[in-house]
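Tokens in:
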């Protein structure tokens, strides 16, 4: 895992210090801090669509606890895990390998399994891993606070985005008086039955010797919602497609959370902020192939009824509700 100093020297994906905006920071960060972070986020999201956030305030111990107890769940036998299977309307639960396909063409195996938590009071394997629910509850609370800070900073950054020369050529602008609370106000019910925000616990099992050459861990895709918070382990394998169409590594960086733009934020901003394709490959190093990979992902979505349409008044995208878009993407990828 790279440290911050090394990463800042070689970054394809920039590192932004949240400073006062991190979880546990002051209730009222200074206006200079809001503006600094907001402008930095908008610049990064308009370029490669990804950013590492340092000083984010979500404790490493909290993430480690979730990985520890979710690992106990993924070690259970298949029949037990399938008792908690996610369904077509029940969007909380276990997804077995092969149930979700992000690569539609061909016969590519995507070697991963997951457990989605949409509601902290919803279905959990409490009988088998009693510690999982409270560890997830703590992490979800921290992620919701962090997401709200990020959403506020983005709104502020969009309001001043044309101070950057890199955006001047786009010729389409957001309202300079975009209310800083706009995105937060449209994400009031995160992790409820009226909002698709969820914490996904991901497990990539060790690669068996017999696996076919075309297998991968996660096919190229964009995320469905507004933004995504990703806590990686130290295994690596994540790649991001840059503006030139090349794949660049998004290596784990100690002490950071990796944040990226989803489809709906791209729709809202008429492509000024980019939902960038990304994928997870199988490491070539034999030692790594014999170890599992884990990550914890917080997918941030607007409330289901929110109508997503370009903030600049253009016709870059047709209006769509948050629920309609997410349901469509699930239908395209899940094999029920």
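Residues out:
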């Amino acid at each position: 895992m790279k440290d911050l100093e090394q990463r800042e020297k070689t970054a394809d994906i920039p590192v932004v210090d949240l400073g006062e905006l991190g979880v546990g920071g002051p209730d009222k960060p200074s206006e200079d801090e809001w503006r600094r972070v907001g402008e930095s986020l908008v610049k990064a999201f308009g370029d490669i669509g990804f950013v590492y956030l340092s000083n984010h305030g979500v404790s490493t111990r909290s993430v480690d606890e979730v990985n520890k107890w979710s690992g106990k769940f993924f070690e259970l036998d298949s029949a037990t895990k399938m008792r908690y299977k996610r369904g077509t309307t029940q969007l909380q639960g276990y997804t077995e390998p092969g149930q979700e396909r992000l690569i539609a063409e061909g016969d590519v195996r995507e070697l991963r399994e997951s457990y989605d938590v949409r509601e902290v009071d919803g279905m959990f394997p409490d009988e088998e891993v009693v510690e999982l629910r409270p560890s997830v509850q703590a992490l979800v609370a921290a992620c919701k606070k962090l997401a709200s800070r990020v959403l506020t900073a983005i709104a502020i950054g969009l309001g001043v985005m044309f101070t950057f020369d890199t955006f001047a050529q786009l010729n389409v602008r957001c309202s300079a008086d975009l209310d800083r609370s706009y995105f937060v106000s449209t994400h009031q019910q995160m992790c409820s039955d009226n909002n698709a925000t969820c914490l996904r616990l991901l497990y990539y099992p060790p690669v068996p010797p017999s696996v076919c050459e075309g297998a991968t861990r996660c096919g190229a895709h964009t995320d469905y919602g507004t933004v995504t918070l990703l806590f990686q382990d130290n295994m690596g394998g994540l790649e991001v497609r840059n503006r030139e169409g090349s794949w660049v590594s998004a290596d784990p960086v100690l002490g950071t959370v990796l944040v990226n733009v989803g489809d709906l934020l791209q729709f809202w901003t008429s492509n000024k902020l980019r939902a960038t394709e990304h994928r997870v490959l199988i490491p070539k190093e034999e030692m790594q192939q014999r170890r599992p990979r884990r990550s914890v992902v917080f997918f941030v979505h607007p409330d289901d009824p929110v109508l997503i349409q370009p903030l600049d008044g253009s016709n870059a995208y047709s209006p769509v509700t948050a629920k309609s878009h997410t349901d469509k993407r699930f239908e395209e990828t899940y094999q029920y």
